[in-house]
């Protein structure tokens, strides 16, 4: 599989990177877990795990069952996704590069020997030790910056500020339960409005705004799980279906890291499938 870049994770931030690489002509294979918990589902390729396919900004991602099926998906101009949480397919795929975009705030098993070039997003990795490069994911002046030594800024546990709100705009499950939605992504909601039910427990909106993300119906939610996201900017409804500024900044960092490493190691042609 010449020139393949494997991306571990297909959430909304990972999807920004996947789209950027796809638009640059790179053959991307997405690896996901069996039950992804994306909140911003309208812009997350991992929804293909459940629905068989997912479309973001006009680009289609198809779930496949074996690595061999990836060739047909690439030939159709689309992106293949394989449920493979541990990377068991890597010896067969032999990717030119691997990007850990799980955003777990810790390393879930990515190592430098998984591919000739390895990049990871956010905290939990040390560039030059765990992977070849780390891309900063914290909002602010350093967002998207590539590190070839050291680590990204540590996780603060506080979401980035949007429209004057940070922790208030992210909603965590108040109880265990199977999610039954009472609102849809893109809806304008008011503080106190019930967004979903977890059994007999209502999940109220914390602020006025646009419901930018909500975990999928039927998901077995556990107490404390991040399950919804409200954007307080009422004029930003179209943002619910487009890749965010943060995801695009991170994607630029990943592309920079891969091209830098490829040039440094004489692998540019192989990365782009030209050799």
Fraction in helix = 10-25%
Mean pLDDT score: 94
| Dominant shape | globular
The biggest beta sheet reads: 9 strands, mixed
Low-pLDDT sequence parts: none
CATH class of the largest domain: Alpha Beta
CATH topology of the largest domain: Rossmann fold
Gap between N and C termini: 12 Å
User: How many separate domains make up the residues?
Assistant: 2
| Strand residues, percent | 25-35%
Q: Please name the CATH architecture of the largest domain.
A: 3-Layer(aba) Sandwich
Radius of gyration: 19 Å
Protein structure class: alpha/beta
Question: What is the N-to-C order of secondary-structure elements (H for helix, E for strand)?
Answer: EHEHEEHEHEEEEEEEEEEEEEEHH
Q: How many strand segments?
A: 19
Side-by-side strand order of the widest sheet: 3-4-5-2-1-6-7-9-10
Report on the structure:
The protein is globular. The model has no long low-confidence stretch (mean pLDDT 94). It has 275 residues and is of the alpha/beta class. Helix 1 crosses helix 5. Strand 1, helix 1 and strand 2 form a beta-alpha-beta unit.
């Amino acid at each position: 599989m010449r020139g393949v870049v494997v991306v571990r994770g297909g959430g909304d931030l990972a999807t920004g990177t996947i789209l950027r690489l796809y638009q640059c002509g790179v053959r991307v294979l997405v690896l996901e877990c069996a039950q992804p918990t994306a909140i911003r589902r309208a812009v997350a390729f991992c929804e293909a795990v459940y629905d068989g396919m997912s479309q973001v900004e006009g680009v289609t991602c198809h779930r496949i069952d074996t690595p061999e099926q990836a060739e047909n998906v690439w030939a159709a101009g689309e992106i293949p996704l394989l449920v493979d949480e541990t990377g068991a397919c890597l010896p067969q795929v032999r990717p030119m590069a691997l990007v850990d975009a799980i955003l777990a705030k810790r390393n879930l098993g990515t190592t430098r020997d998984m591919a000739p070039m390895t990049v990871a997003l956010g905290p939990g990795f040390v560039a030059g030790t765990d992977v070849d490069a780390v891309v900063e994911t914290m909002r602010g002046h350093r967002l998207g910056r590539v590190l070839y030594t050291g680590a990204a800024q540590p996780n603060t546990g506080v979401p980035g500020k949007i429209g004057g709100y940070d922790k208030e705009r992210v909603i965590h499950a108040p109880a265990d339960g199977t999610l039954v939605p009472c609102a849809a992504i893109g809806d304008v909601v008011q503080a106190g409005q019930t967004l979903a039910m977890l059994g007999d427990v209502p999940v109220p909106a914390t602020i006025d705004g646009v419901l930018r993300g909500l975990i999928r119906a039927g998901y077995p939610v556990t107490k404390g799980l991040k399950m919804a996201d409200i954007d307080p900017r009422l004029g930003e409804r179209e943002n619910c279906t487009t890749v965010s500024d943060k995801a695009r900044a991170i994607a630029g960092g990943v592309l920079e890291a891969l091209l830098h490493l490829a040039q440094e190691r004489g692998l540019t042609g192989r990365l782009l499938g030209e050799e």
